[in-house]
């Protein structure tokens, strides 16, 4: 079992890093193939797709892990019933979407093609989540990697094919047809794998069981998408698609630390649970502060090289967004710090607080975005992102304190660290044209980070040198 667990863990981590890396490094390619307006429309399409993904499957994939133990004898049929739910809801969404498009096409600024592609994409994404949840519970890492690569690689390949052939004059449609095409290929493969031995039978009892678990998570899932995407959608409709495209690019820069900490969180979570189970508050206090320093240093270092990253990845039309990139990094910083206190809520099974905070911050984000975007430029949406995620982090710190009855984390040192972080980010924001100042900040933060982790780094280096000599 241990070997299977380690193998699966490595496969998931490597797969996540490689696929996110592919997505990151293909951004410059598509930025040069699409106009800022087309790039904006594509990102708005992806944002709406994220909402429909949650609605299409009603988050039913979250019940798979419970069903493995509660429905051992009928587990495979249960998974098929999850797919039936996805199909039923997607058909309903398709009908409603086409009716809305028929009567309000100008208001939503979408064609029937876009509406139907969104419906298909929502269904496919939900189906993929159902199947990968089943694979994860069965430690079938090989098939998990296969489905993930099919979706991403075919999505990119088909996009390029369509852009250079059928949709050469409408490259936005080439991009969305390609992205959805990759999902359709993965969906066909999944349907064959699930139903090759029979369709199974419809069981409304399975529907009730799954929806009882998944429905409370739907508001949380939608709110997460709104928190990360509503700014782009609102910029398109309040301003225009060009600004939405420029603004969307700023999130690409934040992908680098997100890739790193999405993987490191998989290490932090089990370690935290182990220490909580042992009641070792001192270890948690020290370990969480180490994690805090690593997160803070990484985001400052990323902010220092934002102008260079933008110039390498984008065309001159996007250079005006360098200041927004730093503000978005600031927002993503607090979204990442959330990993530290939220584990207290998961450990004590107080997940209702997580859902409440996500929904509250999503509503706040919409209100702030509407006010700022109707009174100021499209760049003001970045301020709404920073405020929303900052309050999101503070709420979870407060809840961790309330649940434990005391401060589990080193709040004083973390507070000082956040103030220093704000100062350093302000320096980089006000010195975008001044590379020497940014280099100085970069070297100081790198030096401090090495000094802080020097014992750990030196021990690892010595171990590698010893192993190499042998």
Radius of gyration computed on alpha carbons: 23 Å
SSE pattern, N- to C-terminal: HHHHHHHHHHHHHHHHHHHH
How many helical elements? 20
* Strand fraction: under 5%
Shape: globular
Q: What proportion of the residues is helical, as a percent range?
A: over 70%
The biggest beta sheet, please? none
Instruction: Report the strand count.
Output: 0
Instruction: Write down the overall mean pLDDT.
Output: 87
* Low-pLDDT sequence parts: none
Task: Tell me the span between the first and last alpha carbons.
Answer: 31 Å
- Output the structural class: mainly alpha
Describe the protein.
The chain has 470 residues and is an all-alpha fold. The chain has 20 helices and no strands. It has helices at 2-33, 36-57, 64-70, 75-108, 112-137, 141-164, 171-195, 204-214, 217-238, 241-253, 255-278, 281-304, 306-313, 322-337, 339-347, 351-375, 381-404, 411-430, 435-452, 454-469. The longest helix is centred in the first third of the chain and has 34 residues, at 75-108. It starts with a helix and ends with a helix. The model has no long low-confidence stretch (mean pLDDT 87).
Short description:
By secondary structure, the protein is an all-alpha fold.
């Amino acid at each position: 079992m241990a070997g299977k667990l380690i193998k699966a863990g490595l496969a998931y981590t490597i797969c996540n890093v490689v696929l996110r890396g592919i997505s990151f490094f293909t951004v410059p390619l598509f930025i040069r193939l699409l106009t800022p307006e087309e790039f904006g429309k594509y990102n708005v399409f992806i944002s709406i797709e994220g909402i429909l993904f949650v609605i299409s499957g009603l988050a039913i994939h979250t019940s798979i892990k419970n069903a493995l133990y509660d429905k051992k004898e009928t587990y495979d049929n249960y998974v098929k019933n999850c797919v039936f739910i996805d199909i039923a809801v997607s058909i309903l969404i398709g009908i409603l979407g086409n009716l809305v498009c028929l009567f309000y096409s100008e208001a939503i600024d979408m064609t029937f093609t876009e509406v139907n592609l969104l419906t298909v994409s929502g269904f496919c994404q939900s189906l993929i989540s159902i199947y990968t949840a089943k694979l994860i519970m069965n430690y079938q890492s090989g098939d998990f990697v296969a489905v993930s690569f099919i979706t991403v690689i075919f999505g990119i390949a088909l996009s390029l094919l369509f852009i250079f052939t059928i949709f050469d004059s409408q490259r936005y449609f080439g991009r969305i047809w390609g992205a959805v095409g990759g999902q359709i290929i993965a969906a066909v493969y999944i349907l064959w794998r699930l139903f090759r031995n029979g369709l199974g039978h419809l069981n409304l009892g399975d529907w009730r069981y799954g929806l009882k678990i998944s429905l409370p998570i739907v508001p949380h899932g939608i709110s997460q998408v709104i928190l990360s995407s509503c700014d782009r959608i609102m910029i398109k409709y309040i301003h225009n698609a060009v600004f939405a495209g420029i603004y969307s690019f700023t999130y690409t820069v934040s992908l680098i630390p997100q890739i790193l900490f999405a993987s490191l969180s998989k290490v932090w979570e089990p370690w935290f649970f182990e220490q909580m189970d042992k009641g070792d508050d001192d270890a948690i206090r020290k370990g969480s502060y180490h994690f805090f320093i690593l997160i803070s240093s990484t985001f400052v270092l990323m902010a220092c090289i934002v102008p260079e990253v933008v110039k390498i990845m984008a065309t001159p039309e996007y250079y005006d967004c360098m200041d927004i990139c730093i503000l978005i990094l600031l927002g993503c910083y607090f979204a990442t710090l959330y990993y530290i206190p939220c584990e207290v809520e998961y450990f004590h099974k107080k997940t209702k607080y997580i859902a409440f905070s996500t929904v509250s911050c999503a509503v706040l984000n919409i209100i702030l975005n509407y006010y700022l975007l109707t009174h100021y430029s499209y760049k003001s949406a970045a301020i709404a992102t920073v405020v929303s995620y900052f309050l999101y982090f503070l709420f979870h710190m407060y809840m961790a304190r309330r649940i434990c009855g005391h401060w589990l984390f080193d709040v004083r040192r973390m507070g000082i660290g956040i103030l220093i972080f704000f100062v350093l980010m302000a320096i980089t924001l006000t010195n975008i044209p001044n590379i020497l100042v940014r280099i100085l900040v970069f070297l100081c933060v790198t030096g401090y980070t090495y000094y802080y982790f020097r014992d750990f780094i030196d021990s690892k280096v010595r171990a590698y040198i010893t192993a190499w000599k042998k």
